[in-house]
Design a protein that fits this description.
The complex is a heterodimer of chains A (388) and B (492). With 388 residues, chain A is mostly helical. Chain A contains 17 helices and two strands. Chain B starts with 10 loop residues before the first helix and ends with a helix. Helices cover 41% and strands 11% of the residues of chain B. The longest helix of chain B is centred in the last third of the chain and has 19 residues. The chains are: A mainly alpha (388), B alpha/beta (492).
Chain lengths: 388, 492
């Protein structure tokens, strides 16, 4: 019982002994002391409520409503899950998911193979080290994965265009992979004792400082084959009649190029810091033992930078899901809706004052981001880190 | 010193306005008018310059705020509907105003106009006076720009090749094919037979509607091209719109390879560089051809009414049928023309919740910009974005020649405008609540998907019809039908 007694002694505003008149100031001081934890934390809680929780709840309400601006007031009509159903089953299905006709034989092969693989993985987990929470998490991941397999089987592998969900996943998967590979490569180069190392470090970092709008305009201008600065080069290569913006895949590819140019420095700078913290002793010992460069990277460097690499990929993936500036500026989501990301989808709906749909798409993006990122972290990163 | 029509000088005039607001005074010292419009220099910059003149004359300060075109209407609606009211005047598309008026957000300018002795309202062409400025018979807008689309052609090249301006879309393609690949500007590089803006989220849907109009509308302006006025069912899932979309796409064969990513700015840059044989545009190409940046096409352009068609929509079957005098009563030489009032024109409207003195000053400013003394000059300058809308601008070639037009092109250009404006079959742009959703979102998106080969023309028109039905249901079919009928009630 010594500790509580000590606590009471330490408190300056503790209760006065019997017979002593306690002033109002002392009582307030005592109250403040007792509630100091709440008092200190309240401003932060209020700020989070105002700037995070309230908008989150408000946007959820909007996602379940139709809103119309009228003179002096909003007209809000509760429509339940209509805004979500519209994206998945209704008139916006082609926009969000894609256009479905029939699944081609190749599509069936891909979908069934992916489904089989995912179910096998799930069954293997259930047989080995089953926990309810772990199984539920994997069940969500599996359902999402199978859904995506059928989505791409019915669109990409069946000759049909996919919607903003597929486009966003393309930007995330392809963009992040390219950015990580090049960013890590540049970091590996810049960690070497080369000439003008500082210059290269600064030069490689600079694109991150430029606003995405500037990057969008710069790339749109540079990629203009008819009047851009590289038009003579395009013409010289016989690409006078080539229009990257008129084809869905080249347009998406150019946007990934612009996005990568901007974000490779982010990967680069963090991986550079991680590489500089790799123990030189181990590397030198391996060199003395005659290990090749690849062996040193795989056995010594990679395990040490893995936690940082996983974190940087996770941060970049979350950020990549929100891509909006580049497709908006470079193509306005075109040709057709081929380069429209989910954020741009939501933005266009908001701009058309269709706030219910805009909020619904934003929430769908939140679900997708959470499932992908949590799955990636729990199933890929944690496993690799444990192995390492 | 410019004279201000709206600054109502006489006490009697002030008295006549007593019902509409407080007594009117010419001295607006201390009054600030906040105007919202699209980014300059087009439209906005001339408002700034005329604003400086107005400030010097009245003391009222004119502030012009600019937001991207695609966000303009939403910013204005949000500001006024939520009661923020930081904007006193919007200079926007007249078609968008219907939704604002429907929400009770716009000042009725009828008494202001009636008391205005300087605006010379009868000089404004009937279409703009009775259609562009009015909603439900009341004046809510003051036009500063008259908008409809025409085709422009390289007169020098056509003369050289012995070609005539196209009257139908078949002829358009023939002419475009004849010019495509030729060097049109003397830089030894092959150029383009046709230039059309086709970028998504820009102006492409206006061109599509312009092409569709002649296929759909035969009976005059009151027929309309968008809905069946009785049922409010979309009049778009038919062969006429399919043909229009196919025409629009087919012209790309003779256009720049990256046309799908061209908005009107990109297209105009190509035209001014002398790289386009044919082009669809609003009235701007005329003045832009005498701009220093258009040296390559100075005195080389010609203008004509939008091409028409010999096959038009049979509304009962949704099929295209041959024009006959009964089916196409307004046809000329068997060709049905329906020049489309794309966008209607930039027009000013005033916040109903603005301070009464600000309202009066704002009206006076809009009137000042609209008056012939100012607008007859402004419409001859390409970069202003202002196109003719007054009879005095169309009848008198002198200001145009003074501005740099050749007499021949002035006659040709104004003649094409008059041919469009005087057509009894001029097609109206959509003027009902949700106008931007119908066209700027649904039509624009499906058009973009069609142009990029994602879907066929048949699928596109079916999707447009379904999307329009959804909007109509959402906004209320009866209310929308009433507004649509109202919007078609006014003809030339």
């Amino acid at each position: 019982m010594a500790a509580p007694a000590q606590t009471e002694i330490d408190r300056p505003g503790r209760a006065a002994p019997a017979g002593v008149v306690v002033g109002r100031g002392a009582r307030f001081s005592e109250w403040l002391d007792r509630h100091s934890a709440q008092v200190f934390i309240t401003p932060a809680v209020v700020m989070i409520l105002i700037f995070s929780i309230f908008p989150l709840v408000a946007s959820l309400v909007i996602a379940f409503s139709r809103i119309r601006l009228r003179g002096g007031a909003y007209q809000i009509r509760f429509v339940g899950f209509d805004n979500f159903a519209k994206q998945i089953f209704g008139s916006e299905q082609f926009h969000f998911l894609g256009t479905f006709t029939t699944i081609s034989p190749l599509g069936w092969v891909v979908a069934l193979a992916a489904t089989g693989g995912i179910l096998w993985w799930l069954a293997r987990y259930a047989r080995s080290r089953f926990t309810l929470l772990g199984f539920l998490g994997r069940l969500i991941t599996a359902a999402f994965g199978i859904g995506l397999a059928f989505l791409f089987a019915a669109t990409l592998f069946s000759g049909n265009p996919f919607g903003t969900l597929g486009v966003t996943l393309f930007y995330v998967m392809v963009g992040c992979a390219i950015q990580f590979a090049i960013g890590l490569g540049l970091a590996l180069l810049c960690v070497q004792p080369i000439r003008a190392r500082t210059f290269f470090r600064v030069a490689f970092f600079l694109p991150l400082m430029i606003t995405p709008i500037g990057v969008g305009y710069a790339f749109r201008m540079m990629a203009d084959t008819s009047k851009g600065p590289f038009a003579p080069v395009w013409n010289g290569l016989g690409l006078r009649d080539f229009a990257w913006a008129a084809d869905a895949w080249t347009a998406r590819a150019f946007i990934v190029v612009g996005d990568s140019w901007q974000w490779i420095p982010f990967i680069f700078v963090i991986m550079l810091a991680a590489l500089e913290n790799v123990s030189r002793d181990l590397v030198e010992a391996a060199e003395v033992d005659g290990a090749s460069g690849w062996q040193i990277f795989r056995e010594i460097t990679w395990p040490q930078i893995l936690p940082v690499a996983a974190t940087v990929i996770l941060i970049r993936t979350i950020e990549a899901f929100k891509i909006v500036d580049l497709p908006n500026i470079m193509t306005s989501g075109g040709p057709g809706i081929a380069t429209e990301s989910m954020t741009l989808h939501s933005f266009f709906s908001w701009r058309a004052l269709d706030m219910g749909q805009s909020a619904a798409v934003a929430y769908l993006l939140l679900f997708v981001t959470v499932i992908v990122c949590v799955s990636f972290f729990n199933l890929v990163v944690l496993g690799r880190i444990r192995q390492a | 010193m410019p004279r201000l029509s709206g600054s109502l000088a006489g006490l009697g005039l002030a008295g006549s306005l007593a019902l509409a607001g407080p007594a009117v005074a010419q001295d607006y010292s201390g009054v600030t008018i906040n105007i919202l419009t699209r980014p300059g220099p087009v439209i906005a910059q001339r408002l700034v310059e005329r604003g400086a003149e107005f400030t010097a004359a009245t003391g009222a300060e004119i502030r012009v705020d600019e937001v991207p075109f695609a966000e303009l209407f939403q910013k204005l609606l949000t500001d006024w509907a939520t009661g923020t009211n930081s904007i006193d005047v919007g200079v926007i598309a007249s078609g968008w105003a219907v939704e604002l008026v429907d929400g009770g957000l716009v000042e009725d300018l009828t008494p202001y106009v009636e008391a205005d002795t300087k605006i010379d309202i009868d000089d404004i062409a009937p279409y703009f006076r009775e259609f562009n400025q009015k909603i439900g018979g009341k004046t809510y807008l003051i036009t500063v720009d008259g908008d409809f689309q025409m085709i422009y052609y390289r007169r020098d090249i056509m003369d050289e090749l012995g070609l005539e301006p196209p009257k139908t879309w078949e002829e358009y393609r023939t002419v475009a094919a004849a010019m495509h690949g030729k060097d049109l500007n003397g830089d030894a590089e092959p150029d383009f037979g046709s230039c059309m803006f086709k970028k998504r989220n820009a102006q492409s849907y206006f061109a599509a509607m312009s092409i569709a109009a002649a296929y759909v509308q035969t009976q005059g302006t009151g027929q309309g091209i968008f809905f069946d006025p009785e049922t409010m069912k979309p009049k778009v899932d038919n062969e006429a719109w399919i043909q229009a979309l196919n025409d629009y796409k087919a012209n790309g064969e003779f256009g720049p390879p990256d046309e799908l990513n061209h908005d009107i700015g990109d297209t105009r840059a190509l035209v001014q560089a002398g790289r386009c044989g044919l082009v669809i545009d609003w009235g701007d190409i005329g003045p832009l051809s005498i701009d220093p940046s258009g040296a390559a096409i100075k005195d080389k352009m010609g203008a004509a009414i939008m091409p028409g068609t010999t096959r038009v929509l049979d509304e009962a079957t949704g099929k295209l049928v041959d024009c006959t005098p009964e089916i196409c009563p307004n046809a000329i030489d068997g060709i049905n023309f329906a020049p489309f009032a794309a966008f209607g024109g930039w027009s000013g409207l005033i916040n109903a919740k603005a301070d009464p003195k600000v309202k009066q000053a704002a009206y006076d400013f809009l009137s000042y910009v609209n008056q012939a003394a100012q607008s007859n000059v402004d419409v001859t300058i390409g970069w202003t974005g202002y196109n003719p809308y007054r009879n005095s601008q169309l009848e008198n070639t002198e200001p145009w020649i003074a501005a740099g037009f050749s007499p021949e092109f002035a006659e040709n250009y104004l003649g094409a405008i008059k041919a469009s404006l005087n057509s009894p079959n001029m097609a109206s742009d959509i003027r009902i609540p949700g106008a931007q959703q119908y066209t700027g979102v649904v039509l624009d998106r499906e058009l973009a998907r069609f142009l990029s080969d994602e879907i066929t023309a048949e699928e596109a028109v079916a999707n447009i019809a379904a999307g329009w039905e959804e909007i109509t249901e959402d906004l209320g079919r009866d209310a929308q039908r009433n507004m649509y009928e109202l919007s078609l009630g006014i003809t030339n």
